[in-house]
Design goal:
Blueprint lengths: L1 H12 L19 H4 L3 E4 L6 E10 L2 E10 L3 E10 L1 H12 L5 E4 L1 H17 L8 H5 L29 H4 L6 H16 L6 H19 L3 H20 L3 H13 L9 H8 L4 H6 L42
Antiparallel strand pairs: 1-2, 1-5, 2-3, 3-4
Length: 325
């Protein structure tokens, strides 16, 4: 409580009017539990591997709202803190929940854990934390060293490969740019090869190249840990949305990345197939792969590596693909 009061004071000096609410047991007469505990909100990842967490905390003059932008690969990218009214925050919640973006309401403790875990990842990457996090972190609730909340979900016997038919469930899970470019170059070599005489041979070689890439990629502990964390994030999101079936299947998929040989599993091998059109590789030189990747048409959000060329790095704080209120 003392640390929270100090953090609140320092936030006030930066122009954010904050008061520390009384602790449980000393609440005033007529206190309403629902009023005192506004929901926080978390989003799915967008096509650049970023998501938004809105952490709402009760203050006597309204709500203290922390809006954080997170990357599953790079950690905490941005944090903005300010005061808002309950009515305004309810309007924001309604607006966000009416969009195509998947969101879920959660409590303050769950949102606090996500911010803390993301900040740890940022530090592990050797990057600096956003301005204001050190102050805001003193107001976060719950056990910051608790295991990932997604681990509370029991795995199911659902078909993990069926998740690839649910693009929204895996949106934002994509390889790093260097790996994607390397694979694209290899596929271009296959497409242009004079040795491979027909489409069937080229497609078979391309598929083998992607399978080998998956084995090599997921031999790296860091890549397995990152993919597991991403999938657990989605487990938590779907569980909070009340979709236990999808959450259970995602939990099963996350468990695959706890083993070193996951790169040989069909789920991991499908990872790269989402981003490259093997039919164009099979078509040969006339398909003319551009910039080591293919271009494809789509509707809505997309996590294809082509669509991030020249944009700000999603791990280092560039603008995200989410439209924020």
């Amino acid at each position: 409580a003392k640390a929270a009061r100090k953090a609140a004071h320092r936030l006030r000096t930066k122009g954010v009017e904050v008061t520390v609410t009384p602790s449980e047991g000393v609440r005033g007469p007529g206190a309403d539990t629902e009023v005192d505990a506004p929901p926080s909100l978390i989003s799915q990842y967008d096509g650049r591997g970023q998501r938004i967490v809105w952490l709402a905390q009760t203050e006597t003059r309204g709500l203290l709202l922390h809006r954080a932008r997170l990357s599953w690969r790079g950690g905490l990218l941005e944090l903005k803190t300010g005061m808002t009214s309950r009515s305004e925050f309810r309007r924001v919640l309604r607006d966000l929940e009416q969009r195509e973006l998947l969101t879920a309401r959660c409590d303050e403790t769950a949102a606090s854990w996500l911010l803390s875990a993301s900040a740890k990842l940022t530090k592990a990457r050797g990057r600096g934390l956003p301005e204001g996090y050190l102050l805001a972190s003193r107001l976060l609730k719950g056990n910051r060293d608790a295991p990932h909340p997604g681990l509370d979900q029991a795995p199911s016997d659902g078909d993990v490969l069926a998740l690839f038919e649910r693009p929204e469930a895996l949106l934002g899970w994509m390889p790093d740019e260097e790996t994607a470019q390397g694979i694209g170059a290899r596929l271009q070599e296959i497409a242009m090869s004079p040795i491979l005489l027909d489409a069937a041979q080229r497609k078979a070689q391309a598929l083998e190249a992607l399978q080998q890439a998956a084995k090599e990629y997921f031999q790296k502990q860091d890549q397995r840990d990152g993919s597991r964390a991403f999938l657990l994030d989605m487990v938590q999101l779907y569980a909070l949305r009340g979709d236990a079936a999808t959450a259970g299947t995602l939990r099963t998929a996350a468990g695959l990345f706890e083993t070193e040989d996951v790169g040989e599993h069909p789920f991991a091998q499908r990872f790269f197939e989402r981003f490259f059109d093997l039919d164009k590789v099979a078509a040969g030189p006339e398909a003319a792969l551009h910039d080591h990747h293919h271009h494809h048409d789509h509707d809505g959000p997309c996590d294809h590596p082509d669509h991030h060329h020249g944009e700000a790095d999603s791990e280092t704080g560039g603008k995200g693909g989410l439209v924020l209120p």
